[in-house]
Design brief:
This protein is α+β, with helices and mostly antiparallel strands. The chain folds into three domains: about 150 residues, no CATH class; about 60 residues, SH3 type barrels (Roll); about 80 residues, Alpha-Beta Plaits. About 55% of the residues lie in helices and about 15% in strands. It has eleven helices and ten strands. Strands 6-5-4-3-7 form a five-stranded antiparallel β-sheet. Helix 3 runs antiparallel to helix 5, helix 4 runs antiparallel to helix 5 and helix 5 runs antiparallel to helix 6. The longest helix is centred in the N-terminal third of the chain and has 39 residues.
Length: about 375
C-alpha cells in the first residue's frame, strides 16, 4: 500500500502528493468558508440590530463571498505545489496557467465584493431621506454603471496579466464610445437628465409640479421621459432634458402659502368707515386658526374707488384649506360692508356736461 502511494504517478506526481494537495485544498476551503460564513452571520445580525450604514455595507460585502469560488481558489493554490508536466518547459507553462487561473478566481471574488460594496452604498445613499420614495430608474442606472465599470476593469486586468496588449483595445473602445455617443446624443441627453433628476431631486414621484403652462402629479420618472398626470386626467409624457430646461414649481414641497387679495369701495365712503373696513378685515383674517397676517392697508385711490390690499399666510400648503379660509374671509368682508351700508365699487364712468343755455335750445323748444 505504501509503495502504491509513493510509486504510482499521476501527471508526474505520486498518489501521495495528490492526496496531500487534495487534503490541503479541502482544509483551506473549510477554513476560508467557515470564517466567511461566521463573519457574514455576525455582521448581518449586527446590521439588523443597529442599522448603521457602514455595518450594513460591511455585512453586504461579507455576504457576497461565493463558496464555489473559495473552493476553486483552494484547488488552484493546491495544484501550484504539484509539478505538472514532464519537462521544465511543461512545468513552467502549467505553473503560469495555474497562477493566471488563481488570480482570475481571486479577481472574480474581489469583483463580487466590489459590486456589493458599490450597490449597497448607492442604496444606502438613496435611502437617506426616508420620507421620499427612491427613484428606481436612477438607482438602477447607477447600479448598472458601477457593476459595468467593475467587470470591465477586471476583464482588462486579466487580459493585461495574460500578456495581451490592451492599449489598442482601450483605444478602440474609446473611438466606438464616441461614435455611439454621437449617434445617441438625444437619448443620452435624456438619460443624463434622468440621473440629474434622481441626484438633485427637484421633484419626486407623487409630487405636484407645474412647468410652463402645464401642471400635474408626477407618476413616473423614466430613463428618457417623465410621466405627469394632469388635472384634467390625461397623462403627459415630457422628455427629461426638455423638462429640466423649464422653471419647475414644486407645490408639494410648499411649507406655507402666501395670499394677496384686494377690493374696492366707492368714492364718497367716509374716513371712519374706511378705518372700520381695514380693522374688520384684519380681524377676520387673524380669527382664522391656520393663518398669519402679514399686512392690510388702505392702499390708495384707484380709477373706480378706494383700494384695499391684504396679505396673509396659510400655515399649511393645502389648496382646499386655502380656498376654505379665503371663502370665510370674503363672507366676513361682505357682512362688514353690509353692516356699514357700503357696496363694492363697480367700474363706471361719470360724465359731467355743462348746463345748456337758452340760446342753444332748439327753436321748437324756445318759449313763444
Amino acid at each position: 500500500m505504501t509503495a502504491w502511494l509513493y510509486q504510482t504517478e499521476w501527471l508526474g506526481n505520486s498518489t501521495f502528493a495528490w492526496f496531500i494537495a487534495a487534503g490541503g485544498a479541502l482544509l483551506g476551503y473549510i477554513v476560508a468558508h467557515t470564517v466567511a460564513a461566521i463573519l457574514a452571520a455576525r455582521l448581518g445580525s449586527l446590521a439588523r440590530r443597529t442599522h448603521r450604514r457602514h455595518i450594513v455595507i460591511a455585512a453586504a460585502v461579507a455576504a457576497a463571498t461565493r463558496g464555489w469560488l473559495l473552493l476553486l481558489i483552494a484547488i488552484a493554490v493546491a495544484l501550484e505545489f504539484l509539478r505538472l508536466g514532464r519537462t521544465a518547459t511543461d512545468i513552467a507553462g502549467a505553473q503560469h496557467a495555474l497562477q493566471l487561473a488563481t488570480w482570475a478566481l481571486v479577481g472574480i471574488q474581489f469583483a463580487f465584493w466590489a459590486n456589493a460594496l458599490l450597490v449597497t452604498w448607492l442604496r444606502q445613499s438613496a435611502d437617506q431621506d426616508r420620507m421620499r420614495p427612491v427613484n428606481p430608474v436612477m438607482l438602477g442606472v447607477l447600479t448598472w454603471a458601477a457593476q459595468f465599470v467593475v467587470w470591465v476593469t477586471l476583464l482588462l486586468a486579466l487580459l493585461a496579466g495574460g500578456g495581451v496588449n490592451i492599449t489598442a483595445f482601450v483605444a478602440s473602445l474609446g473611438v466606438g464610445g464616441v461614435a455611439v455617443a454621437l449617434a445617441l446624443q438625444n437619448v443620452l441627453g435624456d438619460l443624463f437628465a434622468s440621473i440629474s433628476i434622481g441626484l438633485d431631486k427637484p421633484f419626486e414621484v407623487g409630487e405636484f409640479i407645474a412647468f410652463g403652462s402645464d401642471l400635474g402629479t408626477v407618476s413616473k420618472v423614466g430613463i428618457k421621459s417623465t410621466r405627469i398626470r394632469s388635472l384634467s386626467g390625461e397623462e403627459l409624457s415630457v422628455a427629461n432634458s426638455i423638462l429640466l430646461k423649464n422653471l419647475i414649481h414644486n407645490y408639494t414641497r410648499m411649507q406655507e402659502r402666501r395670499v394677496v387679495f384686494g377690493f374696492r369701495v366707492p368714492y364718497g365712503t367716509s374716513r371712519a368707515d374706511l378705518e372700520s373696513i381695514v380693522e374688520g378685515t384684519r380681524a377676520a383674517i387673524a380669527a382664522e386658526e391656520k393663518t398669519r397676517l402679514d399686512r392690510g392697508h388702505f392702499r390708495g385711490f384707484g380709477e373706480h374707488g378706494y383700494e384695499f390690499e391684504f396679505v396673509y399666510y396659510v400655515l399649511e400648503p393645502g389648496f382646499t384649506l386655502y380656498c376654505d379660509i379665503q371663502q370665510r374671509v370674503n363672507l366676513q368682508i361682505i357682512g362688514l360692508l353690509e353692516k356699514l351700508g357700503i357696496g363694492f365699487a363697480i367700474p363706471a364712468r361719470m360724465l359731467h356736461a355743462p348746463p345748456a343755455s337758452e340760446d342753444a335750445l332748439p327753436s321748437a323748444l324756445s318759449p313763444h
